[in-house]
Design goal:
about 750 residues, alpha/beta, Aminopeptidase, Glucose Oxidase, domain 1, Transcription Elongation Factor S-II, Chain A, four-stranded antiparallel β-sheet, 19 strands, globular, disordered N terminus
Length: about 750
């Protein structure tokens, strides 16, 4: 859909939405509205532009001179704007390559270039001496030779298909496409199936000429572009792999590298589709299923072929400093209540889009707040801006800081508001669902610079357009506001919400900024200005959105937490799981019947030789009654609290105590023991998936036990989640009673 059509449709939808009787939460007071209007007036797209240009002028990966230069630049900016600014440094494992070799031997010989050429259209692409080479951080050292097998996206379902085709990857090297899961899942699953090495490439069907013109003519990945990135097993725990659970100070006690459970045992290397094509062309064996095939000019076979592949990787395994910039504006009334705003500053190379587009927006936001302060405004709560280092290799800077300050954060952190890369397009918002009404209220008055309507209505328009079915589309039109997403992983909110239980949000814009620069030397200022946000207006829009959230959280008389959407969300997740259990039971029974009757065919085509799936254990009855009862109790509790806050909240005599209970409520959703086999993740409602990485799993303990068909564990996790929700309800009930009594609780 072109922009012109999209904008016309959005305008048409305004009249539809206006007729729905939609209402919003109460608007901010006249005084706060005036503050927000002044704040908006200070934000300038030219400033965002200059910040991105300055910080992306040279490569700045962890431990590099460029990284320290960017950290110093940010430090000096915040200091100059009047913030109490400090640099907090941690020391983390960060390996970089000493040797990289990929070659094919046999009837067909080939040596991969493993390079991205400089382009005359991209001024910073030729900074070879400062650029990290193409590699996967936290790959194992290795010198392996073996046959090659194509494994599609390299997720568990793909290995099920291979097993039914009678193809094993044991003792072989696999080649997988980027996509469908976080990159670190691909070597993890390959390792579990006995592979000795893993290659990852971006197929042009997903990210290349199939999608549009390639860089520098267009935005999409050219044949030499390759995606660097970490393969640390972050679904176990993020941060420094040698200091799980504690801040990685110089004096911290560290694990032996062999004992770090987040480090892989096999070598892994990302390659361009230029380097992938000869490897894939050499494969024989079955033709790949339709849905596995990409857009290279070859017939996709699964393999192996007659040639073997030799992969040799060696890394330096050094510790490097990560420099977090922490800038504070003290609160006048509640200095020990912190509204925290964060974005990372490190990049794999120059990082104009990821992360500097978000970092620049945050810095412009901070500058505008400093202008407000010069005019006499002071926040009631302390505002803390955090510019994180080491996000790219595994959320290193934010995780070490959060672990080091854990006790203080659980006492003082009201909210953590995150951003990362930003571009042109639609609002993307995820986070703690008790903050959903805040997002809907903030975004209804911010105008989208392209569509000329609010960013809320533009996002709602997209949601309506993307909804299929008459009933569902009607429900979308009648829906009040938007539903924010759930947080998985992939950015710096993870330690705050999933380890410490600090209410969190992740904000950004995108959808009209597609391209193939991600983690390559082409993530440059020149690329960003041409294809991502040419006017830098969406940097301003991000600053407005996050900045207004910061202002409202900092100055609220009663903190704007509304637990009704949280209840509805959790209840929806529980309903999904109950339906999933029933569906799995019916599907398993039917499949087992077909297998026993030898009537199972592959894709409806009996001519394709494929083994039938193994007979599965029947799905037992899972007792969800404790969870349903806990949710029934929670529904009553949140309604009572909401009614009491609406009636009495702002006139209560003990607002400090009430607000503290409101922002600490999220901590009651943590379980002491954490998730099975990954205790660092303690949130019972949101977590990254064990086999999805970035992708969220909701009610993760229950859901993943069911997906793994571990029925005993599923029932245990149902009971754990039920117990946690009861504690959460009890906390909210006590909060309601506190408001009604007007007595001190702390």
């Amino acid at each position: 859909m072109t922009k012109k059509i999209a904008f016309c449709f959005s305008s048409f939808l305004l009249s539809v939405l206006a007729s729905t009787g939609q209402t919003h939460p109460p608007a901010p007071s006249q005084a706060s509205a005036s503050v927000e209007s002044k704040f908006d007036s200070y934000l300038k797209a030219d400033n965002v532009n200059q910040l991105v240009k300055d910080m992306s002028a040279r490569p700045h990966h962890v431990g590099s001179p460029g990284d320290k230069a960017v950290a110093d630049y940010i430090f000096n900016k915040f200091k100059g704007w009047g913030y109490d600014t400090r640099m907090e440094t941690f020391y983390v494992l960060f390996p970089t390559p000493k040797q990289r070799l990929l070659e094919m031997n046999g009837p067909v010989s080939f040596k991969a270039s493993l390079t991205e050429p400089a382009l005359k259209e991209d001024a910073t692409s030729g900074q070879k001496n400062e650029q990290l080479p193409v590699y996967n951080c936290f790959s194992a050292d290795g010198d392996v030779t073996g046959e090659l097998v194509f494994v599609n996206y390299g997720v568990p379902d793909d290995y099920e298909r291979l097993e039914r085709l009678g193809i094993s990857v044991k003792g072989k090297i696999v080649i997988a496409k980027y996509g469908r899961s976080w990159r670190g899942i691909k070597p993890k699953v390959a390792q579990e199936h006995g592979a000795i090495g893993c290659l990852i490439y971006s197929d042009p069907r997903d990210d290349g000429y199939y999608q549009g013109d390639v860089y520098p003519k267009g935005a999409f990945k050219n044949e030499y572009g390759a995606q660097r990135g970490s393969v640390l097993d972050m679904p176990i725990y993020p941060g420094d792999p040698l200091t799980p659970g504690i801040g990685a100070t110089k004096e911290a006690q560290r694990l032996d590298r062999k004992a770090a459970t987040t480090l892989l045992k096999i070598p892994v290397l990302p390659i361009s589709y230029h380097d992938a094509e000869p490897l894939l062309r050499s494969l024989e064996g079955p033709v790949a299923p339709d849905e596995w095939r990409g857009a290279l000019p070859i017939t996709y076979h699964i393999g192996p072929g007659k040639s073997t592949v030799h992969l040799k990787l060696e890394f330096d395994w050094q510790q490097q400093p990560v420099n977090n910039i922490i800038a504070r504006m003290p609160g006048t009334d509640y200095p020990d209540e912190w509204v925290i705003r964060g974005n990372h500053h490190d990049a794999w190379v120059n990082g104009a889009a990821d992360p500097l587009s978000g970092e620049a927006a945050m810095m412009e936001e901070a500058r505008a707040l400093s202008e407000l302060a010069k005019g006499g405004w002071k926040p009631k709560r302390t505002i803390v801006f955090c510019s994180w280092d080491g996000e790219e290799p595994g959320l290193l800077g934010s995780t070490e800081w959060a672990e080091y300050h854990a006790d203080e954060l659980q006492k003082k952190a009201v909210v953590y508001i995150n951003s990362d890369g930003n571009g042109r397009g639609f609002l993307e918002a995820s986070g703690s669902h008790a903050l959903e009404p805040l997002i809907n209220d903030v975004t209804k008055d911010i105008v989208d610079p392209e569509a000329g309507i609010s960013i809320l209505e533009r996002r709602r328009s997209r949601d309506i357009v993307n909804t299929t079915g008459t009933a569902a589309k009607k429900a979308a039109v009648n829906k009040k506001g938007i539903t924010i997403g759930a947080l998985g992983s992939g950015s710096d909110y993870s330690p705050f919400i999933q380890h410490l239980g600090v209410p969190s949000l992740n904000l950004g814009f995108g959808g009209e900024d597609a391209g193939g620069e991600y983690h390559s030397i082409y993530d440059s200022y020149d690329n960003y200005k041409r294809f991502k946000d040419p006017t830098f207006e969406y940097g301003v829009v991000l600053a407005k959105t996050a900045g207004r959230c910061v202002l409202r959280m900092a100055d609220a008389t009663v903190l704007p937490f509304d637990f009704k959407p949280l209840y509805r969300t959790i209840n929806g997740y529980a309903t999904e799981l109950i339906a999933l259990a029933d569906q799995m039971r019916e599907t398993t029974s039917l499949e087992n019947q077909l297998i026993r009757e030898q009537r199972y065919t592959y894709a409806g085509d009996p001519s394709k030789k494929i083994l039938p799936p193994a007979v599965k254990d029947e799905v037992p009855f899972l007792n969800f009654s404790s969870l349903q009862n806990a949710l029934t109790e929670l529904e009553k509790t949140v309604q009572s609290l909401s009614d009491t806050l609406m009636k009495t909240g702002s006139t209560a005599t003990n607002l400090t105590d009430i607000n503290k209970r409101l922002y600490q409520a999220e901590q009651k959703l943590l379980s002491d023991g954490g998730l099975p086999r990954r205790s660092w993740y303690k949130h019972t409602i949101y977590a990254p998936g064990f086999y999805t990485g970035y992708g969220v799993k909701t009610l993760p303990g229950i859901r993943e036990a069911m997906e793994q068909r571990n029925w005993k564990e599923a029932q245990e996790q149902i009971d754990i989640a039920s117990s946690v929700l009861k504690k959460f309800s009890a906390h909210l009930t006590e909060t309601t009673q506190l408001i009604q009594r007007g007595k001190k609780a702390f």
